[in-house]
Every structure is written in structure tokens, then in C-alpha cells.
């Protein structure tokens, strides 16, 4: 079967996720489009203030541990949309993963399945959604499988997409709401990134309509933004799919409340990995405020800058129900394919379990605000 | 016509205003006076604490975006002195622009006119004010055209200057009040900057009277400062010109209130780009305090460290009615003449529109304090 | 006698503890296992945030001195567990010191004895506990001699160990409670550290039982943690040894209170030198909170990042009864054996006395919170 | 006359005090004892935290200027001990200035006299106090001339010294109280500084008694500190000299109050240039607290990290009556002798006047807390 995972040797000396990044850079650079793709993957918007702030904000949090508790039989399981997961790690939607490894999203699916991680496939995946789903289904212990999408102003197209997603067995929809237009990703633009021949969003057929502008009109305000999603489109999605819907990129509590009132199942607290509007607050700052505003029942996931098991624990302590990993798993993919991603996931989970043990958390329910040190 | 813009090739790879600075440095260095002129343009006072703080203060502000709002038909128009402007960008007064490009202020005027930006001509411009005005008038969509001046203790001279400014079609006067004496611009002094042959303040005729000091007198307190503007001179200007008057460089709220009481039309919140007294607060700190003290009706513009569309949006959120761009447009002038300045203006406006779209602002009226994240 | 100290020449130019670190690195690198052992000694967990924060937190404290007080006959003596000590310095438990010098813990004991410092022998010492105790007993002015241990889930083994410790003349037990499992010490793992032939924990006989796990069980939660110490084990230790018991690694005030209620004699405020869970608060932050919560009578020692006499004074001002020195004395051991450690101890004590004199403290009882400057 | 100032060429390009430091380093390095003397002059205690903090604290203060005020006839005069001074700059006591220039303190006196600066001669001056006084007396516009001293536990010696100081025409005494023992100046110790042949404290005759210690006694607490000054010695000095007495190095408000109650005329807020106890607060933090505690009438001078005219203005705004310049004038001495020091003083005064003009201060009485920006 062509969709069986290719097994590669793991580079030596990988002891944390940063090591995967270094290993990946060497491999990606060897590709013809390597340098530009690297800028595309790792760059952020403008001066990358938010990109750096995401990392820094987790680092700046301090844990106040408990000792001498009995932790026998502890675990890092969480419940999400009615399922019990082995651990709270999901893979964030990232486009065009064939840029970084020939197996692209398939390799990632194999790793996610093997390590019981959730997978949120990007609408701009470079592999057919059905093949990814088949890999996940083949493993009984696999984590949840969700589908991320952007709104396209073509209801016929959207309806067909939703039907295909449901038919393929995806369990939830994730609508990205923080990128109605592209951010100014200077690093990527300077590198002159464009998709190489043969890598494309294979799940998105149809044709985008060209912009038709009058002289003096703004491409943005008069061209692109009228086609972007609003609250009405969220309602339309709720009405036209039986799948639970999550919104990714909500920052303001009023928007969060409105989403929940419209029947949205959960929110992914995100600043798009620092790739849209530079100057957004780090997600480690957004998360606790949203949790405080929305109460304990709302489903809140978070991404952005998670690199350590202690970051995952901090996110849970700040109120996350689960955590998305982004660029690091693509680094692992580039470094060593499916095995690389599996190893990165295992490593992060191990770090999480160690962090729990060392801070006296038997389960993640023990990780609340009291775990965080206040000066 | 000699005043038609020279069209030059844009250097490749200009994706943000910082790129123009790099491109400019290469071109300016090639001039005989290049290194000194570069120090003159980019240097600040003393240790350049304020120069750096200006930039840092914008970077330190975080935006809290809204999502899923309908932004169709949005725009970045503002009203200023009774005119509607396409966008809130004006070019700050900067002296002797022929130092950086043979076309000097003329090239800048062509770009401002083409991009509908406002232009505040420096009294120390190296091109005749009438030629600059003619370029601006030739473009119906051109932004406002204002004239900046320093007080000279010679009322006859001043009256003639005001008449010439009015006759040339300038729409407002900007009196700079934060530089009664030169700041200690160490970088510039170390570079030994002096005006090269043939570049001078062509609009300032007359002769400055030499200082006549008694032994033991202070050149500053007994020589220069008695000739500097005070509130009486502001009143004199109000009485002797029909043009609206703005003050540039007011920092203290009591001074701001007094200015408005004397009929001043507006204030430009500025620390002179960090070029006068090192240690002044960054303008991003001064602006919100003045807005809070003066109420919503006062006209407040701001300059200092604006390099990004998100900086412009932050300035508007902090209470600015419009924003001045300083050194960056001279970098663009040096890098590629009129086309360079036009490109820089377009780029900054595009960044502003993207920032608005990504933070959910349909118009700049949506950019208020609630757009800023408070920790 | 083979246990007499070898006398080596001190490297020139050692004026502070940082100099010993530099001198040590050169000597350690020359050993076959040098680079890895260096990483083992100096590395911390993960990104070493806590390792750095420990140092920074002492540096960030400011002293507010008194002047013109009569300090004649002052001293830096303290009382600990009923003994009067010449000064408040103890040597923290560090494993396998033969990695750094052939004389290992014996050289350290000679220095501690000569300089009247306390010594806390690590259970993982590479020299027999009786030989260390004999060296300390040979010097009447020697400081206290304590024994550090980890819990092993084998009561027979533990009982034998306790009897041997008591018989050898150790005066107190220190149970390390902040490391039920290993931290992720990336630097050490990257260096591939393992114990060289001939260096081992000579005082720990017996055999650890291998983990027996079911498929799907967590090595951590189902294997290691069930064997770790809990509060019941603390009570067992109290019941099975007549020696005073201290806990090392308590951070939370509730744990501290529980320990004192169970008859624990004192606490060592520690984050294990940044070697267990990265993200723990610096000990200079933990200490004053514990002191405030527990009141003036509780016995609190502190370690982590102490490098200067002024750090010791700050620790005392924050409420410590004494202070542990860790890595620096091993640097001194590596640099020049027993003489190196003695010199380092003398140097630190001299710095402490100077700091007392310059801040107006006649004795350490004068070092309270009022000695610390609050902004 | 041998005491006439040698006139040297000023190095080119000196635009601020930092330039003098660079110029000085080149000249000092050429001396046989150059490197060690440079470490002695510029080094601070231990990790030089306080040394750096002194500078940083001035930089961190922001000025909030007023504009359009009439400043004609302004000046920077201050009153001190009943005299009106042209400006608030005094030269701090620094030992052994012949280390840096053959003319040593004499050159400095010529410059101080020419620039109307105050001079505080160090008791450890390398030139006879009478020759220094003669230079100062020769210039009618010279600033105040004070004498700094340390307590020596020999009342006969002290009485002779006081008589000589008075006879030589010194106007005040400055007792340094923050250095009863040497600080641990690591940089200086590492450089192996010792006084070269022929440079010594020529004004301090007599012989220091050697320490006589019993075994087990502390050189510090039992040897040096019993000889140090206490409050009784302050009273003795008040009783045995008609000169006003200032204390240098008081940090705590209770000590300050006690000093004033004993008839001390004023305090010099100082941390000894970061040379005694590392970790002392920067003087820019100590000064406003002391001013707030002591009220407006107390005489408070300040030193430490002053390098800019704006620093002087900030110090005055924080409550100083005058300001001491330390290392920078010795840099100027080394760079160009008397002319160098004169130029440095003029430059700093010019910067001060510019800072006053640019912040709207006609006199230094206008520089109060309202001049400082509060976030």
C-alpha cells in the first residue's frame, strides 16, 4: 500500500523539540524550494513580535509544585467532545505539508494514530482528506480527527465540502476566523515563497472568482472582505453540518460569548502562530482571560509557542481543555517523517508526565490556577 | 518640465519600511557628504534613548481584535481641518531633502500627491515652496499641504514669510515649539555634518542677527532664548495669518490646554523624533494622556517611530486624528526618488488596511482604546 | 593515611567563585568523561529557565545599608539544631564527586572541617560515608554533618541505611522530596553522560527491583511513582530514626505546614538547583513567602544560585537560618581539591563579613527584611 | 611656577563624556601601571551590579517638558553652604590622581577653578592639599573647595589633619561613612593593582597601627571595625572643627535624620560609585526617598553615574542641591590634563543648559518632581 508509512532513521541527539527544528532545517534546505518553504513555515507577520511573545509568555509562567502526594495510577487523559483521549495533544492545521516531506500529511496521520494524538487536517492539505482519514481509522487508539476550513463565498462549494468531510469520517469542523485576509508575512515574502509544481490544496476544487473592482475601490475592503465569513456564515455552517463546530482565532470575550450562543462547540485560542496580525497578545495571556469570562464549562483549546511538556501543563493550569502543537510537528516530519512526528509526540507527552509528577499532579484535573506561582 | 518626477527603478525586495532604510543607506553613502548626512538624518540627541523608546513603545502595545464582523466597504478615511482624507498619513517636516536625492522635496511632493498623503513642508526645505505647492495642486486627490516654521525674532521677516506661504496655497501652519535651541545630537556632531555647497534653506531669506553677548553671559539664556517663541508669539501668529495654526512638540497637558485656548487648531504630539532633548517620553506614551486630558474634540496628530501599519492603527486607537511619517519617507526618497516614496506610502497604507481587517475595524472610528489589550 | 588531604597548588587569580568555575572547566575537560560530567554538573532541566532565574533573583535584590554603627566584635555565627556554627554555610548534597577529583567527597570533607562549614553528604556519594564522617570528626571546629537520602521502596534497605548513617555519626537526615522522578536534563542527555567505570554510589547496596508494567501502563505513573515517597514515608522515617529530619524541596506553604506538623525539624527551600522541573520559581522568591507563612520559629535553609557573600546576606535577610552552597564547591574541588574548596569557603565567608560590615550588620540577627530595599 | 597648568592638545571628536573615557583609556594604557590603574578607576565591587544600575537609573527617568515659556536671562546657579555657585557641578573626591596624569589633582584644580566647579579633594590625594588650595584661590570665580576624609582611630592625627585642612582654606569637610572596610573590588584585584613608586597619599602622614589579633578573631570584626567611625566620631569631628561637615554615603533615612540632628550640614547621597557593597540601590533611587523623608530644607548632594546634562537636571528634579561628577573628570584628566577636565566640565554644563532650555526651566528652581514623567 502506498499509504503505509515510510520508516526513516531518527537523527541522533534529539532530546527536545528544538532539536527537531535544527534537524529539520538541514533536511528542508536540501530541497529546491527549501529556503523559501522554511521561511513560509517558521516566519510570522511583520516584525514577529507576536511570534516571539508566544514562546516568551509560556517561559515567563512559574509553577508552584506540591510534593509527597501519592501519584500512583495517574494519567494525562482528557475528555473532548464526548471522547476520552489518552493525552491532551492535537496537531494544529498546517497547509501543504508535502513541502517538508514527500509523505506530507499521511506521515503525520500515521504518527498521530500511533501516538493517540488528535489531528486537525488543514483545508489546504496536500493529501486527499480520505487517505488521511483512512490512516487514522486503521488505529483503534487514534485520537480525534477534525477538519479545518476557511470560509469561501460560494455556498454550493461549501456544501459539497462539508458533505465530503462528513463522509470521510471527520468528527468536527474548525473554522479559522482570524485571517479574513493574509497577514503581512515579511520573512516569507522576502524569501519569495510560492508553491512548487505538484504541491497544492488537493481537497479544494472549484475556482476562486477573480476580484472585480471599480477604480478607487480597495482590494481589501471592496474585494476580499465582502467574501469573508461573518456571524451569519457561522450560523450557516451550524445549520448545514451535523458536525460540532469550533472557531479558531477568537480573542475577545464578547466574540467568544456570541460564538457559544450560536451553538459553537468550542474555541481554539490562537493568534495563528503569530502569522496574521503582528501585535496580538500571546495566547498564554488570552487564554486565562477567556476562561475567566466564559466559566468552567466552555471548551477552550490553545495553540502558539507550545514547545515543552511544562508549557502543556501551564496551558492546562490556565484553563485549556487541550493543546495544539503546530510548527514543531512539521519540523519532526521534515526531520524524519512519520517516525519523527511520533517521536516528537512521545517526547512531549513524556515531558508532560514528568512535569505532572514533579509538580504533584496525578491527573490534569489537578492542574488549575493554584499550580501557577504569583509574585 | 524640470519639476516632473524622475522615475527610477525600485530596488528589489522591499517588503517593509525597514527595507527602504537599508536600500537608502547604500545610495546615500555614495554621495560625498553621505556618511555625515546619514548621521544627520538618523541620529538622535545624546544617547538616543528617546529615539529607541519611540519605536519600542509602539512595539509594546498589543491589539485585541474582533472577528467575524462585516467589514465590506470599509475604508481608512479621516477628516482633518474640514477635509476628508483618503488615509491618515502625512509626511512630517524634514529639512534639506536634497541631501538625500537631487529632486529633494519635489520628488516627495509627487509621491504624496499620487498617494493622497498630506505633506508638511519644512521651513528649511531645499526646494522653493511654490514649486512644491504646484506639484501638489496638480493632483486633485492630493492630501493637505501645510507649512512648518520656526519662530524668527524678526516680525517683518515673519510677516513676509506668512504672506508667501498663504499665497503659495498652503493650508495650515505648523509651529515647532520643542526646539528653541538645538539638541545635542552627538551622532551628527561626531560625523561632522555640515550643509554641502548648493543645498540650503531656499525659502528663508534675510539674515540672522549675530548674538551680542556681554562677558559672563550665557549664549543660551542671554543670546538664543530671548529670541525664541513664547505664548505671545503664538498669539501674534494667530493674529497675522488666516491659516489654521498647529503646534508641534507640546508634551504637557497644561501647555496643550493653553494652546487650544489661544485658538490653536491642533497639536502634533512629538518629541522631534528623539532629536532634541534625550529622555523625553515616547510619543505613544504622551498621546493617550493628552487625549484623556483634552477630550475627544481636540485635534491631535502624532509622530515618532511609526514604521508599521499596526503602529498607525495603535496611534489611532490611542486617540490620534492622523499620523506623521518622518525618517522612513526620506529613506524611500534616497532609495528610489518619487517612486520610492510613493511605494513606501502605499506599503504603509496597505499594512494599515490589513491591520484594520485583521482586528475587525471597518473604519478608523472603530479604533478606540478598547482595541488595545491591557494586561 | 590514605584519607589525608592531597595538597595542590591553587590556580592564580581566583578572586571570586566564578573564577573557580573557569579554573574547574579546564581541569575537568582533561578527564576522559570530562565534557559529559561537566554537563551533568552544570546543566539544569529543559531550557534552564529556573537555573538562570536562581542567580538572577539574588542579583535583583537590593540592600539598604546602615552606617556609623559600632560593629566591634561582630560575627556571622548562627544556631542550627542546637549547635552554634561559625557561619551559616553548608555544602549541599551532590552526587559522585569523584567525577571531578580523585579525592571526591573526602577532599570536600577536609575543606569543610577546616573551614567549619556544614556538610550534607549525598546518598549517592562516591566515597564511603564512614570515611567522610571520620574526616569531619577529626576537626573539633567542624560544622554539622548531615546525610541526604532519597526514599527507596524497600523498608529493610531503608532501615539498614538509617542505622549505618546513625552509627557513622551523622547528625541529621535530609530527605529530598522534589525529585520522585528524574527531570528532563537536556544538556546532560545531549552530552550522553553516564557514570564511568569505578565511580558509583558506594553507600547504596542492594538491588533496585526492575519495573514490571502491563501493556499500556505508564512507566511513570504505574512504575516509578508508586515507589516514591509520600507523607506516610516521611512519618516512617520519623519513627525509624532518632535523627532530626529535614525535607529538601518543599515549595508550597501547605506542604511546609504539613511537614512541620509531622515533626520534621526543618526545610531546605530548594528547586534542586534548577535540575528537576524547569519553571519552578527561584528560591529567593520562595523563601520569603515560606518564612511569612510559617513564622519566625520554623527552620528554613535555602540553596540555589548563591555565589556571593551578599547573596548569603540577602538570604538571611529573607528569612533563612543558613545557606547551602552547591555547584561552586564542586568547581573548587575540581580546580584544586581540598585546598580549593577551603579557599572557596573562606572567600565566600570573607565576602559575607564584608557585606555585613558595609551594610551595618554586627551579627546575622541584624539581617532582616528591613535590610532589603523596596522600590 | 611648577603649579601652572600644562596645556595639552585636546583629542579630536570629543562630543560627550563617553568620548573622554575612550580617549583616556588609550593614554592610560601607555603607562607602566596603566591596565591595573584603569581597573582600579573604573571597576566596581563584585559583579558591578550597582555600578551599572547607577547609570541605568538616570537613563530610565523621563522628563516631561514645558514649552513656550520665556527663559530669557535664565541660569543654572545654585546656593550651597551660603555661597552662590555658577552651576551645580562639583568634582567628587578620587584618590591618587597622579596615576592618570603627572599633574594629578593640580590639573583638576586648575580646571575646576576655570570652570567655577566645586572641588572635593580626597584625603588620599597625591598632591599636597595646600598646592591644590592655592590654585583654587587664584581664581576669583572658583567654586567651593572641600576636603574629604576617612576616620582614623588616632585623635591626635585627626586633630592635626583638621587644623591643616582649615589652615589651607578648605571650606567644608566631607566624611565618607560607607566604607568602614574595603569592598571586594574584583576587577581591581584581578588586575593586581598596587600603587606605583612615587604616588602616594602625601597629605596623610603618621603610621597606621598594625592589627593585633588573637587566634580565632576576625580581622574585620575584631581588627578593622573597632577603628571605624561611629556616631561618636561624627560628634567629635563636629566639636573639633569649625568647618561645616557633610557625610558621604548615607542611604537610610534614619541615619540621615540622626546626622542632621547631630549638626551635620548636608549629605552626599552616594553608593561610592558602586565600589563598596555591590547590590546597593542606584543613587537615583535613594535620592528622592531621602528628599521625601527629610523635607525641602535638608542639603542633599548626589553622585553616581552622572554622565549627561540631562542626568544633572534629573538629579535636581529629584531633589538634589548639587551634583558630584566622579570618574568622568578623571577620564578627562587622563585624556588631556587640565584642559581636558575644563572641557568636560564645560561640555556637561552646556548639556545642562540645553536640557533646561528644552524642558522649559529658566532656573534650577523650576526643576522639581513635576518635571519627571510618571507612567
TrEMBL record, chains A, B, C, D:
Keyword Ion transport: no
Lineage: superkingdom: Bacteria
Positions of the FMN hydroxy acid dehydrogenase domain: 9-375
Keyword Flavoprotein: yes
Annotated EC: 1.-.-.-
EC supergroup of this enzyme: oxidoreductase
SUPFAM superfamilies the UniProt entry points to: FMN-linked oxidoreductases (SSF51395)
Cofactor entry: FMN
CDD domains the UniProt entry points to: alpha_hydroxyacid_oxid_FMN (cd02809)
Pfam families: FMN_dh
Cross-referenced InterPro entries: Aldolase_TIM, Alpha-hydoxy_acid_DH_FMN, FMN-dep_DH, FMN_HAD
PROSITE patterns hit by this protein: FMN_HYDROXY_ACID_DH_2
Molecular function GO labels: oxidoreductase activity
Alphabetic keyword roster: Flavoprotein, FMN, Oxidoreductase
PANTHER family from the UniProt entry: 2-HYDROXYACID OXIDASE 1, S -2-HYDROXY-ACID OXIDASE-RELATED
The family this protein is said to belong to: Belongs to the FMN-dependent alpha-hydroxy acid dehydrogenase family.
UniProt-recorded name of the protein: Alpha-hydroxy acid oxidase
Origin species: Roseateles aquae
Amino acid at each position: 500500500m502506498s499509504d503505509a508509512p515510510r520508516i526513516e532513521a531518527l537523527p541522533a541527539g534529539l532530546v527536545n523539540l528544538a532539536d527537531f527544528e535544527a534537524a529539520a532545517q538541514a533536511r528542508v534546505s536540501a530541497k529546491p524550494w527549501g529556503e523559501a518553504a522554511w521561511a513560509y513555515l517558521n516566519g510570522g507577520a511583520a516584525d514577529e513580535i507576536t511570534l516571539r511573545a508566544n514562546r516568551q509568555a509560556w517561559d515567563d509562567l512559574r509553577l508552584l509544585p506540591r510534593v509527597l502526594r501519592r501519584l500512583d495510577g495517574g494519567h494525562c487523559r482528557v475528555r473532548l467532545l464526548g471522547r476520552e483521549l489518552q493525552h491532551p495533544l492535537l496537531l494544529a492545521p498546517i497547509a501543504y505539508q508535502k513541502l517538508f516531506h514527500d509523505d506530507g500529511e499521511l506521515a503525520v496521520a500515521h504518527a498521530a494514530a500511533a501516538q493517540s494524538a488528535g489531528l486537525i487536517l488543514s483545508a489546504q492539505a496536500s493529501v486527499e482528506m480520505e487517505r488521511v482519514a483512512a490512516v487514522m481509522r486503521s488505529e483503534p487508539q487514534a485520537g480525534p480527527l477534525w477538519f479545518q476550513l476557511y470560509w469561501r463565498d460560494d455556498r454550493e462549494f461549501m456544501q459539497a465540502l462539508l458533505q465530503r468531510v462528513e463522509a470521510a469520517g471527520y468528527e468536527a469542523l474548525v473554522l479559522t476566523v482570524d485571517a479574513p485576509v493574509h497577514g503581512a508575512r515579511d520573512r516569507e515574502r522576502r524569501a519569495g515563497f510560492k508553491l512548487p509544481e505538484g504541491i497544492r490544496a488537493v481537497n479544494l476544487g472549484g475556482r476562486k472568482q477573480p476580484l472585480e473592482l471599480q477604480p478607487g475601490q480597495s482590494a481589501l475592503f471592496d474585494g476580499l472582505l465582502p467574501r469573508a465569513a461573518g456571524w451569519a456564515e457561522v450560523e450557516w455552517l451550524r445549520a448545514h453540518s451535523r458536525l460540532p463546530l469550533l472557531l479558531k482565532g477568537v480573542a475577545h470575550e464578547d466574540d467568544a460569548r456570541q460564538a457559544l450562543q450560536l451553538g459553537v462547540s468550542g474555541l481554539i485560542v490562537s493568534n495563528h502562530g503569530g502569522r496574521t496580525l503582528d501585535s496580538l497578545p500571546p495566547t498564554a495571556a488570552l487564554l486565562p482571560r477567556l476562561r475567566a469570562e466564559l466559566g468552567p464549562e466552555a471548551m477552550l483549546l490553545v495553540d502558539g509557542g507550545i514547545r515543552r511538556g511544562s508549557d502543556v501543563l501551564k496551558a492546562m493550569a490556565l484553563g485549556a481543555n487541550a493543546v495544539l502543537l503546530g510548527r514543531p510537528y512539521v519540523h519532526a516530519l521534515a526531520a524524519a517523517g512519520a517516525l519523527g512526528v511520533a517521536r516528537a509526540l512521545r517526547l512531549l507527552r513524556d515531558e508532560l508526565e514528568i512535569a505532572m509528577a514533579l509538580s504533584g499532579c496525578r491527573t490534569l484535573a489537578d492542574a488549575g490556577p493554584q499550580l501557577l506561582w504569583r509574585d
